[in-house]
Write a structure and sequence with these properties.
This protein is an all-alpha fold. The protein is built from 3 helices and no strands.
Length: 86
């Protein structure tokens, strides 16, 4: 039973990591990265490392995508301001 859960979690991790690489839009990459962080948290929990899983859940699926989204928003806003000034 445990081996099947580990294999499924690894397959989901590989699929979500591939999806993050394939995405061209940084905002979509951040959303897929959030899913990848959640899948990694599940994998760590299944592998009996719940403390690492909780850390991954907080950082990998919440903080990092949030910072990426805020950065993308700021860069896009500056790009629009420069276009409007010209």
């Amino acid at each position: 039973m445990d081996d099947a859960v580990i294999v499924v979690a690894l397959l989901l991790m590989a699929a979500s990591a591939t999806a993050a690489v394939v995405q061209r839009d940084p905002a979509r990459q951040a959303l897929v990265l959030s899913v990848l962080g959640s899948v990694l948290a599940v994998l760590f929990t299944v592998l009996q490392a719940p403390d690492v899983g909780l850390s991954q859940l907080a950082v990998g699926s919440a903080l990092t995508p949030l910072l990426i989204m805020l950065s993308v928003r700021k860069v896009r806003r500056r790009g629009r301001e420069k276009e409007g000034a010209q």
